[in-house]
Structures are given as structure tokens and as C-alpha cells.
Amino acid sequence: MEIELLKSKIHRVKVTQANVNYIGSITIDEDLMDAAHLVEYEKVHVVNVTNGERLVTYVIKGERKSGTICLNGAAAHKAQIGDIVIIMSYASFTPQEAAEHRPVCIFPENNLLK
């Protein structure tokens, strides 16, 4: 048996762009992706703290050191520029692995790492 646990989280970042005309996904600054151990095309849950919306999408790389958090396609309707979101990924673990697992959580200021 495996259980699903939080793998990583980018906590409370501001949406910098919303592009309804893009195919889909969320674009994230590649530095933030690396810090949160996210890989391109990984499934993520996005929770909008500002308006309560929730969605599931996948990650695409944004320009390093840009602070980019851009909701694309239909997801762009779920947030406005300036909204605060939490981005979370999950992974499956055996009970033994779960006992040792600690998620990676980052808390960037102004969407940038110090």
C-alpha cells in the first residue's frame, strides 16, 4: 500500500500574470521550481488564498530570477494579478517512506529567493 503526501510547497506567492490565450498550465520562475523540487510538467494543486479558488494543472519553466507566477489558459480565470496563491505537489510513499518523509516548503518574499 502507498499513501499520498505533500511533496513540496511554494507558500504564498503573488500571481504576476494571467494569460487566458496560452494553452494551459502554470508558469513558475525556474529558481522557485528548483527550490521547491518541482520539475517541468509535474502535476500541482494551486490554491488561491485571495478568492478561495482551487485548481489542478501542471508546471512549465519560467525565466530564472523573474519571480514569474503565471496562470495560463482556463486557469487564468481563477486568479487575478496580485492574488496570493499556494502551489503544492504530492507524491506516493510506502508507510515506511512516509514515516521519514518531510516535505520541501519554501516561503519566498516578493516571489524571489533570498
Structural summary, described in words:
11% of the residues lie in helices and 46% in strands. The radius of gyration is 14 Å and the shape is globular. The chain has one domain (3-106): Barwin-like endoglucanases (Beta Barrel). It is built from two helices and eight strands. With 114 residues, the protein is mainly β. The longest helix has 6 residues, at 30-35.
How would you summarize this macromolecular structure in one to three sentences?
The protein has 114 residues and is mostly beta strands. It has 2 helices and 8 strands, in the order E-E-E-H-E-E-E-E-H-E.
In percent terms, what proportion of residues is strand? over 45%
**How many DSSP E strands?**
8
Q: Domain count, please report it.
A: 1
CATH architectural arrangement: Beta Barrel
Low confidence ranges: none
What fold name goes in the CATH topology slot? Barwin-like endoglucanases
CATH C-level category:
Mainly Beta
Mean pLDDT: 96
What is the strand arrangement across the widest sheet? 2-6-3-5-4-7-1-8
Helix proportion range: 10-25%
The main sheet comes to: 8 strands, mixed
**N/C terminus separation:** 39 Å
Summary tags:
114 residues, mainly beta, 8-stranded mixed β-sheet, 2 helices, 8 strands
Layout of SSEs?
Layout: E1 3-14, E2 17-19, E3 25-29, H1 30-35, E4 43-48, E5 54-62, E6 69-72, E7 84-93, H2 95-100, E8 104-106
Parallel strand pairs: 1-8, 2-6, 3-5
Antiparallel strand pairs: 1-7, 3-6, 4-5, 4-7
